[in-house]
Design goal:
417 residues, alpha+beta, 5-stranded mixed sheet, binds histidyl-adenosine monophosphate
């Protein structure tokens, strides 16, 4: 068969699937500890949702959406991100009527027609959180803390947190005017993307990666100097809390993000290990989005992280759960071994057992040495005496114990991560 996965998509299996599961399990645990509950929104939505939510002038809406007409002639788009859908669900189900603070997490596939490369795909997975209903800087700090700790817990090191405040709408209008004025006579020297940005979305010129643009914006007016008193206080309090929580961060006054809905705090968690695709997790406040979508003025903040990028940064060794191998010697020991394997498996242990009768050597060879800690050896004598031999594969030590105590014994010995 000549059909391959479509460019920019991939199959996730074996070690990668183990990583994917590990990441989402840790994320679920961390988010639920912070009282977030899961929301699952549809993979496709009406195109208008993203146009209005993310913004017409953004790269995502202009160039990257998978948009098509369905058989009923409706314009449908495969979701390029999760925030717009979460806000739609919040409004559609009138969640604001039941609770003052809503904390949701999600994970799943997103779609963007981008140029594929390492760490950048056309179908990729994000995990994210959204908090709706609070302006409190404690929430901004919680979200950043949680994102950082989540990545740390997964075992990723050398991360850098960058933070900025882009202020509210009025601040940005004022800043935009001054920025346009500053860039006016330098326009010709900007890269072609930035010449378009100059017209449509000039703040994006600030975080362009092209050297000439970087040089030009070095002397541009500084966004944080335009913040109102209240916006400044909010930013200061978020930074104070990050210091309190011991989260290492740096301020980057040129961080503006590529989606239109942001206001006030924006942040990214970055690694140097993935080249141009170094942003692992990104987000910020979007206090104006819910009213743009037709709701009451409701402040909100959240982030999303690229699961594939996290996977690329992970160390294989850390995620292997210890397992147990059962070795049975002779047909008469088969049922005894099977019952023990089942008992251990339903008690949450990962157990390898060969279903074909094989020699001791052949069975031992099959056991994956990288993560099997114990072999349980069962011969005819053990069956008669209701016992098993437990061999520690790391030390070679062997002990004999009563069969009925195996589960209890393993609970103290096995690392379930
Ligand atoms: P975003 O910056 O567009 O933000 O994406 C967040 C993360 O998704 C990126 O930092 C990256 O790790 C991952 N990502 C984005 N595009 C790709 C791609 N083509 N391939 C692989 N990974 C990718 C958002 O999506 C916002 N909704 C975040 C947010 C939530 N802000 C507030 N709440």
């Amino acid at each position: 068969m000549n059909i391959k996965a479509v460019r920019g998509t991939k199959d996730i299996f074996n070690e990668d699937a183990v990583k994917y599961n590990y990441i989402t399990e840790i994320a679920k645990e961390v988010f639920e500890n912070f009282n977030y509950s899961r929301i699952i929104t549809p993979i496709f939505e009406e195109t208008a949702l993203f146009k209005r939510g993310i913004g017409e002038g953004t790269d995502i809406v202009e160039k990257e959406m998978y948009t098509f007409l369905d058989k009923g002639e409706r314009s449908i788009t495969l979701r390029p991100e999760g925030t717009a859908s979460v806000v739609r669900a919040y409004l559609e189900h009138k969640i604001y009527g039941n609770e003052t603070l809503t904390k949701w997490y999600y994970y799943g596939p997103m779609f963007r027609y981008e140029r594929p490369q390492a760490g950048r795909y056309r179908e990729f997975n994000q995990l994210g959180v959204e908090v709706l209903g609070s302006k409190n800087p404690k929430i901004d700090a919680e979200v950043i803390y949680m994102g950082y700790k989540l990545l740390e817990k997964i075992g990723i090191s050398d991360l850098r947190v960058e933070i900025n405040s882009v202020g509210g709408k009025e601040t940005r209008i004022k800043y935009r005017e001054d920025l346009l004025e500053y860039l006016k006579d330098k326009k010709e020297d900007l890269c072609s993307d930035c010449q378009t940005r100059y017209e449509k979305n000039p703040l994006r010129v600030l975080d362009c990666k092209v050297e000439t643009c970087k040089e030009i914006v070095k002397k541009a007016p500084i966004l944080t100097e335009y913040l109102s008193k209240e916006e400044k206080e909010h930013y200061e309090e978020v930074k104070r809390l990050l210091n309190l929580y011991n989260i290492p961060y740096s301020e980057n006054p040129k961080l503006v993000r590529g989606l239109d809905y942001y206001s006030n705090i924006v942040f990214e968690i970055i690694t140097e290990k993935l080249g141009a695709q170094g942003t692992v997790l990104a987000g910020g406040r979007y206090d104006g989005l819910i009213s743009t979508m037709g709701g009451k003025d409701t402040p909100a903040v959240g982030f999303a992280a690229g699961i594939e990028r996290i996977m690329l940064l992970m160390d294989d060794k850390k995620i292997k759960k210890d397992s147990i191998g059962i070795v049975w010697l002779g047909e008469s020991t088969s049922d005894y071994a099977l019952l023990l394997a089942n008992e251990l498996r339903v008690n949450n242990f990962e157990v390898y057992i060969d279903y074909e009768m094989k020699s001791l050597r052949a069975q031992m060879k099959k056991i994956d040495k990288t993560n099997t800690k114990y072999a349980i050896i069962i011969g005819e004598d053990e069956v008669k005496e209701n016992k098993v031999i437990i061999k520690n594969l790391k030390t070679g030590e062997q002990t004999e114990i009563n069969r009925d105590l195996v589960c209890e014994y393993m609970k103290g010995e096995i690392n379930e991560i």
